[in-house]
Amino acid sequence: MEKLASLNTAEKEYYMTTARLVDIGSRSSIIFSRSKPMEKRALLNFVLSNATLSNDKVLYTAKFPFNEVLKHGHRLTLLPQQVINRARRWVKNYLFI
Predict the structure, then answer these.
(1) pLDDT digits (tens, 9 = 90+) for 36-56
(2) Confidence grade of residue 97 (pLDDT, cut at 50, 70, 90)
(3) What are the φ/ψ torsions at residue 49 (nearest 5 degrees)?
(4) Taking a C-beta distance cutoff of 8 angstroms, is the pair 27, 96 a contact?
(5) Hey, which residues does 54 pair with through a beta bridge?
(6) d(Cα 14, Cα 27) in Å, to the nearest integer?
(7) Is there a contact between 22 and 84 (Cβ–Cβ < 8 Å)?
(8) Which ranges of 27-76 would DSSP assign to H, the alpha helix?
(9) What is the pLDDT of residues 21-38, one digit of tens each?
(10) Which are the contacts of 46, defined by CB distance < 8 A and separation ≥ 6?
């Protein structure tokens, strides 16, 4: 029974994390544009390393896991839509959002 409860807890945490990431990711442009300069700097430092400006071009290395997002950005979605929908349903049903 404990193992089943542990798996249920892990599943809940997975769906909550997925739903939060999808939500934040879908609003990231708005969040960034409305942030104060110091908040923007903190966000960029969180996502990027070795950012430099060269001939009016920004050069950077993305930190993990953001580098993986950029590497696979050519795909339409990183997560199958059914996983995203399931995570959103779970959050609405269990957290009453």
Answers:
(1) 999 988 888 888 898 888 888
(2) very low
(3) -135, 155
(4) no
(5) 57
(6) 20
(7) yes
(8) 28-33, 37-47, 66-71
(9) 777 777 888 888 899 999
(10) 63
Backbone angles phi, psi at 64, to 5 degrees: -70, 140
pLDDT of residue 94: 57
CB 85 within 8 A of CB 22: no
Q: Which 3 state secondary structure label does DSSP give 72?
A: coil
* pLDDT value for 31: 86
User: In this structure, are residues 18 and 79 in contact, taking their beta carbons and an 8 Å threshold?
Assistant: yes
Indicate the residue type of 81: Q
Is the entire prediction scored with pTM above 0.90? no
Cα(66)–Cα(60) distance, rounded to whole angstroms? 12
Closest by CA position to 9, among listed 73, 74, 94, 70? 94
| Among 51, 53, 27, 55, residue whose Cα is nearest residue 41 | 51
What share of the chain in percent tops pLDDT 90?
Answer: 7
